[in-house]
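> tool_call: predict_assembly(chains=two)
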Amino acid sequence: MRWAELVMAIVMAIFSLYLMVKSAELPIGWITGEGPGGGAFPFWLAAGMLACCIWTIVSWFRKTNPFSRSDEPYMDKATLKLFLIGAGSLTAMVGLFHIIGVYATLPLFLIFYMRVLGGHSWTLTGAFAAITPVVTFLFFEITLNITLPKGYSEPLFYPLYDFFY
Amino acid sequence: MDIFNLLMDGFAVAFLPLNLMLIVLGCTVGLFIGAMPGLGSVNGVAIVLPMTFLVPPASAIIFLAALYYGAMYGGAISSIMLGIPGASTAVATVFDGRPMAMKGLADKALVGAATASFVGGTISVVLFTLFAPPLAEVALTFGAPEEFALMLLAFATFIGLGGDDISKTFFSIFIGLVFSAVGLDIVSGQPRLIFMDIPGFFHGINFLVLAIGIYGIGEMLWVMETSQGKVMVSQATVTVKRVMNSLREVVHAYKPMVMGSFLGYFVGILPAAGATPGSLMAYGVAKSIAKDPDSFGTGNLEGVVAPESANNAASTGSMLPMLTLGIPGSPTTAILLGGMVIWGLEPGPMLFVNHKEFVWGLIASLYAANLFALILNIAFIPAFIWVLKLPFTILAPIIFILCMIGGYAPTQDMHDVWLMLIFGVMAYLMRKLDYPMAPAVLAIVLGPLAEASLRQSLIISHGSFDIFFTRWASGTIAVIAIILLVLPVLKMLKTRLIDNNVSKKPG
């Protein structure tokens, strides 16, 4: 925890600086007749963020903050594994949205969680993997008229479009 | 009488077949979401909001409000059955609810919680009906300085009532406000904060992207970590006879219920205070006024009904400033407010003038939602227990999928989905270090309003900040906000002074 606290504060301080620089692309001072410039609001708020990070860093060195004294690991091995599975599977899912589309990705994602991680039966996993994309398609594409990304699987949907529209 | 007539008109709207169906559906979905450990009203509203584009705006808000209510009822279920709060608002319910379940009195605790939620909900909706119109009338006289002072108060409440690490609460508010400024400058129309010139930032950062990132993805990653160990679901025997017997006993605990309802309602009204502090305070007060305070914590029914009536009352209370002033009283109402803005139902006093039918329809729907939630809650107790036993490997992927597609739906831009994923992962990593996330969500919703009112006020005053103090209404609100902001600093100095004195004393 101890080092994570410091690293997070430093990373966020750098991010705050970046936000300040980015905000300053617009005027941050007073413009006669117009009031505060367009960059003023985010600039001073980003400055506030930076001040908070410095506050946290100072507390860390003075050891006045509970995390700065904590010897516990930020993530133990089991937690890290779970985090990597969670974040990794989500990243893979969003990435695959671009390539094979939502409807091909959803079954893969469900099979990964239910069969690989959960060890559920193929019947249950198969049922979820088959029903979820169908329900999603009917709800989003047909009812709400929201087209979800299909990537390279787009041509497969042409007959369906012909049928529904 | 006027209010009565308006309310009757409201019932006519709430009882339209579509709305009535949505109220029942909203309560049911809310109860299930609330019952799932770790997920509460805020997660439910954030994840489900994009799906509500199917129905007209007024019906969508009625549905979400019913979901909010249902989740408040449902939160108690996992507190009692698992000993894990269904949501932070149900933390206080664990103190006595869990010991009751361990003693085999789970059904009594569940019935008690449901009844208390009903009492809290009903009292608070009546108070809401009486308070909302006059408050909206006062708010009609408010100008930009008052609006900004109110927002300052909302943020100051987070600082004043927040956790120990003030710098992290401030940070969360600031980052939410900065994210709200991404896109186009409201005055000059120039592009602003377009990170790495990615075109997706031109339409700004949708509050839902942040809300689903934090409350959907971040929360599920958190639940994955915290539920590593196996949880034990208590047994509950539910028969009509036992439920009736429990109801008879619950009626005797009317005092803490009524106290919790009033306390919860007024704490809920405070901008950004919400149901969690309300229910904890109600528990504390119930214990101090009880005949046998020592039995609290060992399974006293009063310790269940007080926080449960308070958290439901607070959820209604937090809708009061949201609807009348346009300032949300809790993270959930912040998301509701964001939704209303998308639908063109700008919350604030003008809503009571321009959209009377909607406002009173919503208020009437709260009465109905309250009744339905009570009935559904007691009838479906076995179903909720089944949900609690649902393996995480089925629940997690479904919620993740809902988040991802829900995040894509409003703007239909994959940029938002990636952003949501980044926010979710960052929220999880920061939450581990006690960075509070609710202030950031409130800030991204209020940000555009706060910036507009600040800039307008400063233009009126030619750049002088005096304008916030020279008008009576904004002055009063601003002074309260400043007191709340200074309070934790004084508290910190006091602790340090005491520490120094202790360390100076020999031995």
